[in-house]
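Lecture notes, continued. The same structure-token format from the folding unit now serves as the input rather than the output. Read the line below as a description of shape only.
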């Protein structure tokens, strides 16, 4: 009986603590009631009659109310805040002990009932705070409107001493007061002193702390407030703007204006662009900057920016500076950022920063040696446009064109023996081959590797000498052993680097294909031939030649032999063939050509240009009977399709 009475007494006390009345705070949430119905400590528990129903919830909206474990816990906390230690301190501990001894209960809780989120004795569940690079924390004091702001803040500072905090954005909403802080340690300390600070009315101060950023809205009003704050921070003499700890500016104390939020930083860029576009120095120290992706727009907004301070922020990696590449910065300060702690070697640190910002001469207030690079004017950043060919002397254009035309006509024929006249008696020739490993087996240069004299692979002196062909006959014999070819003159690029009466040095590159029997898709090859040409009798001949063979690139494959005129070199109307260098032009007397000489020149021009005699004479007359100029003029006009068809009609 005594035990049963103990249970009943415990049950009655339980009903008193958990039923009736409105709770002012529910643990685990931020909701509280404006009505404060807490009872006085001296009032007896038996004076308050409350009805409690433990009937299960039927599911209807108005068919009965369910008192959850959260509500029960809230009332327990209500009494703890009121009495300071339990259910008003009136024998609750004894009743709880009897409760635990009863059947059907486990540790003061009925078997199968929901497990409360907080301790049974009234301890409040606290959500763990999270520290981040840009964390802010909201501190809320329910019923704080009853007390002076100075009293609330002094009480909190005293309770967590020696830690301190700076309250920002103080706000009174209904019966609660709230503010925001940035310090994580101070936020944790404030969370731990919940219900430990005594108030003048004998109650305990409730302190709710949670991760939260102040609310903000980017609009014209915010930009106007930012503009007014920037005015006093701008120095027109140095064109410098100081935005250090911008969110703590007294003029912005009632609005959230933290520059670590990308939307707010972009709004700041807009204000700067509209009001101080010639800004040269910007201080962004102590703004919790973390991500810099949106800084890619800074170069467009502030193109003349030269100095940027970003010390004591949260920039994690040096790669974050890639967003600043478009700026022409000469000075930057990154002290106090995690990126600097990650790179221990100062030399590596400087190198990584200069890799992104090559013009930096001052880093973290330390002067750096001048960067190594080309000191080009601002307008010379672009390289000159590429040209198809280079001629050191335009006077040599005709001779070079004639020589190459005649040479490749013979080289692409089935018999290369006539090339004996094109080489010097003591001529030398060598070949190098590079077979790209990325090409398929069908593109391999097996036919040329036999003659490869690449000095990187041929290190033996005897081998090098054996692969060097010397003398007219060995040279032409070597060329005759190479596969039959057809060159595309439209792909030729000629560089004439030296042109004197005694010596001509030129390089020709282009594409050719191998003429193989029973092969539909003849393989394309890329070539480069460097020629040293010297006078020989009335013409010219090759004294030294180096050939390089390679596989073609994708672009070369797409362009080669696509022009109908790219049928190789032929002495026909489709190709301009001026007088070959190997065939001497008619000699002109000092007093000018006589009638016989003119006739010879006309016949020679007609034979090699395929024009009729009338148009050949017209071409020579218009160039004052200068045979080389006439050949060059014909080739250029024919290339531009400016010669009429009747010029090639024979009588």
């Amino acid at each position: 009986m005594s035990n049963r009475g103990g249970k009943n007494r415990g049950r009655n006390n339980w009903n008193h603590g958990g039923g009736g009345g409105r709770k002012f705070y529910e643990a685990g949430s931020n909701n509280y009631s404006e009505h404060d119905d807490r009872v006085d400590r001296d009032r007896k528990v038996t004076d308050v009659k409350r009805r409690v129903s433990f009937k299960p919830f039927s599911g209807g909206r108005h068919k009965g109310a369910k008192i959850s474990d959260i509500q029960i816990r809230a009332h327990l906390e209500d009494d703890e805040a009121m009495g300071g230690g339990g259910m008003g301190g009136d024998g609750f501990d004894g009743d709880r002990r009897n409760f635990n001894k009863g059947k059907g209960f486990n540790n003061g809780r009925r078997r199968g009932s929901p497990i409360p989120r907080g301790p049974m004795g009234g301890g409040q569940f606290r959500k763990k705070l999270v520290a981040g690079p840009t964390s802010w924390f909201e501190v809320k004091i329910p019923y704080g409107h009853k007390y002076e702001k100075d009293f609330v803040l002094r009480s909190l500072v005293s309770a967590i001493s020696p830690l301190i905090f700076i309250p920002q954005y103080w706000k009174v909403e209904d019966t609660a007061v709230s503010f925001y802080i940035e310090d994580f340690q101070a936020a944790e300390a404030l969370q731990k002193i919940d219900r430990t600070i005594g108030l003048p009315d004998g109650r305990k101060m409730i302190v709710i702390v949670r991760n939260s950023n102040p609310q903000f809205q980017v609009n014209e009003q915010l930009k106007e407030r930012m503009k007014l704050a920037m005015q006093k921070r701008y120095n027109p003499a140095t064109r410098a703007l100081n935005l250090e700890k911008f969110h703590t500016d007294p003029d912005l104390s009632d609005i959230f204006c933290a520059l670590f939020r990308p939307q707010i930083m972009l709004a700041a860029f807009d204000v700067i662009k509209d009001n101080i576009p010639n800004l040269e120095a910007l201080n962004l120290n102590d703004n919790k900057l973390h991500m810099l992706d949106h800084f890619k727009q800074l170069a467009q907004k502030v193109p003349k920016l030269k100095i940027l301070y970003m010390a004591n922020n949260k920039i994690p990696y040096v790669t974050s500076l890639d967003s600043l590449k478009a700026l022409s910065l000469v000075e930057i300060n990154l002290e106090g950022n995690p990126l600097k702690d990650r790179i221990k070697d100062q030399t590596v640190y400087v190198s990584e920063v200069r890799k992104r910002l090559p013009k930096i001469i001052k880093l973290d207030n330390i002067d750096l040696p001048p960067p190594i690079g080309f000191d080009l004017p601002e307008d010379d950043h672009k390289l000159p446009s590429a040209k198809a060919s280079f001629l050191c002397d335009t006077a040599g254009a005709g001779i070079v064109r004639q020589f190459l035309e005649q040479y490749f006509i013979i080289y692409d024929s089935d018999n290369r023996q006539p090339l004996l006249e094109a080489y010097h008696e003591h001529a030398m020739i060598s070949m190098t081959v590079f077979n790209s490993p990325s090409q398929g087996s069908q593109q391999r240069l097996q036919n040329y590797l036999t003659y490869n004299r690449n000095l990187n692979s041929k290190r033996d002196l005897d081998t090098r000498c054996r692969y060097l062909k010397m003398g007219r006959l060995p040279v032409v014999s070597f060329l005759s052993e190479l596969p039959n070819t057809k060159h595309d003159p439209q792909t030729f690029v000629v560089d004439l680097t030296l042109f004197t009466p005694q010596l001509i040095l030129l390089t020709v590159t282009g594409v050719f294909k191998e003429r193989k029997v029973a092969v539909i898709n003849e393989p394309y090859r890329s070539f480069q031939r460097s020629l040293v040409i010297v006078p020989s009798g009335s013409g010219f001949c090759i004294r030294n030649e180096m050939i390089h063979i390679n596989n073609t690139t994708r672009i070369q494959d797409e362009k080669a032999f696509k022009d109908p005129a790219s049928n190789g070199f032929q002495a026909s109307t489709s190709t301009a063939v001026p007088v070959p260098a190997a065939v001497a032009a008619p000699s002109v007397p000092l007093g000018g050509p006589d009638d016989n000489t003119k006739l010879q020149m006309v016949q020679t021009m007609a034979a090699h240009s395929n024009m009729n005699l009338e148009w050949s004479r017209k071409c020579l007359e218009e160039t004052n009977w200068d045979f080389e100029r006439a050949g060059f003029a014909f080739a250029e006009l024919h290339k531009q399709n400016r010669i009429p068809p009747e010029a090639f009609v024979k009588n």
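Point for the exam: The chain is about 30% helix and 15% strand.
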